[in-house]
Amino acid sequence: MPRHSLCLIALLLVAADWPQFLGPTRDGHSPETGLAREWPAGGPAKLWEAEIGAGFSGPVVSGGKVLLFHRLGDEEVLQCRNAADGKPLWKHSAATAYVDDFGFDEGPRATPSVVDGRVYTLGAEGRLSCISLEDGKKVWERHLAVDYPFNKGYFGVAGSPLVDAQRVYLNIGSKGAGVVAFDRATGKEIWKVTDDEAGYSSPVLAKLDGADRLIFFTREGLLVLDPGTGKVLHQRRFRARIRESVNAATPLVTNDQIFLSASYNTGALLLDWHKGEPRDLWHNDSSLSCHYNTPVKIGEQLYGIHGRQESGAGLRCIDLASGQVRWSKPGFGCAALIAADGLLIAVTEGGDLVLLDPTPDGYREKSRFAALGQRKPRPVAAPPALADGRFFVRDGAHLSAWELKKK
């Protein structure tokens, strides 16, 4: 299966790991093979489950360890467990006073990134931390709200850190420091650019015309930057006309093309990047308008969630090249998607695990299991992880591990 949005970080990883937001190549793809083609009526086997705190931060897996960043009481906690049995190994805690303006959730939003024995976390108030994967000890820490004062936004700080061999990249959203790069070993600032406010999308590092490029989807729109210097190579406004809106889905990059999608009557855009001269291939609000879930590309199609969360979103397949809708499944609801071993795995907001045959010929559901559907108090909003045949998913109260390998 082809890899899209290839990140330099992937060169440092074990193939079975899921070390960052949206997986090894930050595009929802897993290199896993040997997965079960169907599940029994009772669903896949549950390996273990643990009680957890609040947050929308997804689990990550590295070297047989699963890490979850969540909130317990007045602390943001990075908890490390054995991935096979859930046994606690260590935890790192830091005080937090974050209050959500809408009462949704007061835990961290950003998913950690693991690179070369270090875990990088970003709290809801803007605490950027580097933690040792071996023992949970703090290596360095930055209080971004102090160093780069920024507007809180609607739902706190949410973009997951992007880390390569040298730097940590963030859309902070401060004046003169819309995007900032930090030395990943020390936390010292390397460069900062633009006045772009922070969105809820996470950035990617990809090849465009054979060169490494940073792609950010900020609150204002698209930013393409040189990772070494921060030089702005392209900047384009792409956002809703109303202020009460968010850009949340992560950009997808493939074959020198950038795909962006947002809700709030914004729509989707496919942009061709050729010799640094971007050109629109198509742009509309009818193909695939994503609220917060990022679609995945399989073959020449995109599979993603179309429509606002509050208005009954559905699953959809479109041709990437043209934006033509191949099929829709209304009422599917918001869902996080992972492509692996020729399959599409979904975790719906209602707590169902769904196994799909990804084909442009029509919606083909192979198995469905209400794994978390009866859980309270919160729906499933965090992205899942897949590593060593184990599928890790969380809601607002539990982290569970499921066996997806063939028996």
Please explain how this structure is put together.
This protein is mainly β. Helix content is 1%, strand content 45%. It has one helix at 144-147, and strands at residues 29-30, 46-51, 60-62, 65-72, 75-82, 88-95, 113-115, 118-122, 127-132, 138-143, 162-163, 167-174, 177-183, 189-193, 204-208, 211-217, 221-225, 232-237, 252-254, 257-262, 267-274, 277-284, 296-298, 301-306, 314-319, 325-329, 335-340, 343-348, 352-356, 365-370, 385-387, 390-394, 398-403. The chain has a five-stranded mixed β-sheet with strand order 1-27-28-29-30, with no helix packed on it. The protein is globular, with a radius of gyration of 19 Å. The relative contact order is 0.15.
Topology:
Layout: E1 29-30, E2 46-51, E3 60-62, E4 65-72, E5 75-82, E6 88-95, E7 113-115, E8 118-122, E9 127-132, E10 138-143, H1 144-147, E11 162-163, E12 167-174, E13 177-183, E14 189-193, E15 204-208, E16 211-217, E17 221-225, E18 232-237, E19 252-254, E20 257-262, E21 267-274, E22 277-284, E23 296-298, E24 301-306, E25 314-319, E26 325-329, E27 335-340, E28 343-348, E29 352-356, E30 365-370, E31 385-387, E32 390-394, E33 398-403
Parallel strand pairs: 1-27
Antiparallel strand pairs: 2-33, 3-4, 4-5, 5-6, 7-8, 8-9, 9-10, 11-12, 12-13, 13-14, 15-16, 16-17, 17-18, 19-20, 20-21, 21-22, 23-24, 24-25, 25-26, 27-28, 28-29, 29-30, 31-32, 32-33
